[in-house]
């Protein structure tokens, strides 16, 4: 079972999903599309068009609809199909619907879960942060969380704070496919000038490279 | 340069690099289609007289052939763009553009080859090529991330240059050989900006901006 069934996961930096764009996303076997409508709301859905299974992440956003690249079927923010170009007069059946996840934004991140009813992590509610970088790391997410914790990351295994070299980083993780993890890095607002963000990006890139090389990371206990 | 003849191939990404710059610059050329696959015409003795290494595409300028996208991009940008936006004359920017052209030729060679293997069933160590392509994309992703924090939307300086054109097609086409764009948010946004430039044209595998 994927962690999406049991918790809220940070799946992208809010800033990386600009209005009217979509992107593909893997979370432990799930293929998801994250997209932002023209009025700024973020959505996380299964990345599969109900018509013939084309990835919706290849499609394009029109206002508050996302349209499939293949035959142009359009879905509204509730996942309901609203328009089929080959049959423009058709009142589209209610059953043609894309399965959605619950999505929200906090701490500069887009979060998703399959369980609407789950409590949102309180630590993420109160943080204001500026985006730095999402890094794909060829290491299992638990190993990454472990390495980060040893380096001083204070969090719940998914989201937390890391003070390094005069920077306060906010780091969120999610497991991708094939034993990969995605690490979303931000800096706490207040130290968010370009300098701090550049230093944070360089730190995060070096950290990724060390973790992949199996080298101890700065601050990690031997 | 009145008399231009472009020997190109629709599915060849280096031909596309040149067609795209020509479109941005409003330069037109007579086109001669070279049947790379399955014809392998770029390997023929006749074509090798124009392009000794078999590099594609070839641009003939008043009968003088220029082979390969890097040489053609730099020459067109130097001769056909009075603003010098696409190949800045300022030495630091010029040098940076030229080093990214080298990056394209070297680090993205595996990405080009991986795509040809996938599309035209060529033999080769595709796992190694994909790994090399991913490491090149990661270098670009890191660079574009830093640029974006500094408020710069392009690889070099504050405007699109031939460095962007030399680099982005290999990334844009990576789904042809099974590398999705999930891991490269900064490159994805860069690609979107490129597709929205006036004069942008497509090739199979690189759709228009909708
Ligand atoms: S597969 Fe999506 S519209 Fe046909």
TrEMBL record, chain A:
GO molecular-function terms, A-Z: 2 iron, 2 sulfur cluster binding; iron ion binding; oxidoreductase activity
Keyword GTP-binding among record annotations: no
Gene3D superfamilies, per database record: Rieske [2Fe-2S] iron-sulphur domain
Oxidoreductase in keyword set: yes
Alphabetically ordered keywords of this record: 2Fe-2S, Iron, Iron-sulfur, Metal-binding, Oxidoreductase
Record-annotated Rieske domain positions: 9-112
InterPro entries attached to this UniProt entry: ARHD_Rieske_2Fe_2S (IPR015881), Cholesterol_7-desaturase (IPR050584), Rieske_2Fe-2S (IPR017941), Rieske_2Fe-2S_sf (IPR036922)
Protein name in the entry: Rieske domain-containing protein
From TrEMBL, chain B:
UniProt cross-references to InterPro entries, sorted A to Z: Glutathione-S-Trfase_C-like (IPR010987), Glutathione-S-Trfase_C_sf (IPR036282), Glutathione_S-Trfase (IPR040079), Glutathione_S-Trfase_N (IPR004045), Thioredoxin-like_sf (IPR036249)
Gene3D superfamilies according to UniProt: 1.20.1050.10, Glutaredoxin
Keyword match NADP: no
SUPFAM superfamilies listed in its UniProt record: GST C-terminal domain-like (SSF47616), Thioredoxin-like (SSF52833)
Residue ranges occupied by any GST C-terminal domain in the UniProt entry: 90-210
MF-aspect GO terms: transferase activity
Name of this protein: Glutathione S-transferase
Source organism of the structure: Xaviernesmea oryzae
């Amino acid at each position: 079972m994927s962690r999406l069934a049991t918790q809220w996961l940070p799946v992208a930096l809010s800033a990386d999903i600009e209005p009217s764009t979509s992107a593909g996303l893997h979370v432990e076997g799930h293929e998801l599309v994250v997209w932002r409508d023209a009025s700024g709301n973020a959505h996380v859905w299964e990345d599969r068009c109900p018509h013939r299974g084309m990835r919706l992440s290849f499609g394009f956003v029109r206002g508050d609809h996302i349209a499939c690249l293949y035959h142009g079927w359009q879905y509204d923010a509730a996942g309901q199909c609203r328009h089929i170009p080959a049959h423009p007069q058709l009142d589209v059946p209610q059953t043609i619907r894309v399965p959605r996840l619950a999505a929200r934004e906090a701490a500069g991140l887009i979060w998703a879960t399959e369980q609407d009813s789950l409590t949102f992590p309180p630590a993420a509610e109160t943080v204001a942060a500026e985006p730095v970088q999402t890094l794909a790391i060829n290491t299992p997410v638990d190993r990454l969380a472990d390495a980060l914790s040893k380096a001083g990351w204070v969090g719940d295994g998914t989201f937390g704070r890391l003070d390094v070299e005069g920077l306060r980083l906010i780091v969120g993780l999610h497991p991708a496919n094939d034993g990969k993890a995605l690490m979303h890095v931000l800096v706490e607002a207040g130290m968010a000038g370009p300098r701090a963000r550049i230093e944070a990006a360089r730190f995060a890139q070096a950290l990724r490279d060390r973790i992949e090389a199996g080298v101890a990371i700065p601050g990690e206990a031997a | 340069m009145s008399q231009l003849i472009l020997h190109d191939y629709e599915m060849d990404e280096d031909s596309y690099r040149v067609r795209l710059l020509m479109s941005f610059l409003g330069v037109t050329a007579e086109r001669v289609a070279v049947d790379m696959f399955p014809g392998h015409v770029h390997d023929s003795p006749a074509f090798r007289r124009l392009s000794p290494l078999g590099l594609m595409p070839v641009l003939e300028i008043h009968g003088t052939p220029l082979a390969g996208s890097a040489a053609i991009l730099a020459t067109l940008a130097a001769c056909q763009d009075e603003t010098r936006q696409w190949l800045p004359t300022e030495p630091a920017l010029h040098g940076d553009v030229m080093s990214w052209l080298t990056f394209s030729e070297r680090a993205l060679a595996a990405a080009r080859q991986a795509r040809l293997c996938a599309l035209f069933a060529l033999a080769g160590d595709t796992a190694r090529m994909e790994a090399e392509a991913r490491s090149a994309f990661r270098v670009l992703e890191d660079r574009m991330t830093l640029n974006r924090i500094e408020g710069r939307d392009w690889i070099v300086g504050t405007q699109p240059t031939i460095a962007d054109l030399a680099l982005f097609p290999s990334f844009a086409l990576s789904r042809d050989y099974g590398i999705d764009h999930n891991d490269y948010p900064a490159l994805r946004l860069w690609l979107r900006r490129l597709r929205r430039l006036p004069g942008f044209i497509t090739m199979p595998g690189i759709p228009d901006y909708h």
